[in-house]
Amino acid sequence: xxxxxxxxxxxxxxxxxxxxxxxxxxxxxxxxxxxxxxxxxxxxxxxxxxxxxxxxxxxxxxxxxxxxxxxxxxxxxxxxxxxxxxxxxxxxxxxxxxxxxxxxxxxxxxxxxxxxxxxxxxxxxxxxxxxxxxxxxxxxxxxxxxxxxxxxxxxxxxxxxxxxxxxxxxxxxxxxxxxxxxxxxxxxxxxxxxxxxxxxxxxxxxxxxxxxxxxxxxxxxxxxxxxxxxxxxxxxxxxxxxxxxxxxxxxxxxxxxxxxxxxxxxxxxxxxxxxxxxxxxxxxxxxxxxxxxxxxxxxxxxxxxxxxxxxxxxxxxxxxxxxxxxxxxxxxxxxxxxxxxxxxxxxxxxxxxxxxxxxxxxxxxxxxxxxxxxxxxxxxxxxxxxxxxxxxxxxxxxxxxxxxx
Length: 405
What we know:
The protein is an alpha/beta fold.
């Protein structure tokens, strides 16, 4: 029996931060949810969905997921980019949600079934100095985490990436103009190896430690840092240099065996294909929400498996519980799982997005409800939680030059 798409609704609401959620409904009343949140550019995706994509879906077979994906990707002519791929991702998630509900199964069962019993998660830990970071790690340990992304303030740099006074880190600041952040690579390179060695000494050899450079180093600087951090034995060094110049990672590889992770700003398989085939990365960081949904990410992860690259799917606060659920079902169903980023959210967000997935003792579980296992509370409305204008910061060198953020 053909189950046709009857309507689509785009919900833009801000219960502490902005989320863009797509709700598709079939003619028989089955609903599916998709996450289309693009941090700092939310309304662009909302308009693309509402004004262009949803009207083109009415009457289409809700079960023809691959065909609909190609219809939206190839059929629009203009391909790729974060706005387009976030919109396609939302439709794709919603259709998988519908299909799994029709089957009466959690999504991971339609993706081949469970490859593991639980999903290792890592926490964001942060501090302006060693003592502050250790307190953050201890708090995460109390919550059950075994793996920690460690970001620490650098003396001489007034605002270091990932370091926040708030426990709930939200980089998109609510302001009429982008905030101005600052960066000095040589100051960072002089200090971060010692700081990370100290953290390793205090945490012990068994602690799983990750560190994010956030695209800020030139290739030769990145190679130097990766070499200097070998003794720290990081789980991964993330986004060590901008991904635009992919050959740059070959220089890092020549000088270090520190594992490399990259890809949170990637939108298509073509942005990571050469990196995987050249064995230049160890973990792929793409997001289900920003990378075309479950259909496309599954292809990316299959390619990764061929080249012994593991997953480390993007899952910060700017991915809604809908996007997080989609990530977890993929994590559960692939053989080359590595680790899952997971930021615990304020209770309000969990209340407005009731979900079957759970976190216990450092691990995530997707749950056994049919579909994605996430619902949208009737209380989540634009009237009650109106969109709040905001921007990601813009990063500057000390002499005023715009730099990678």
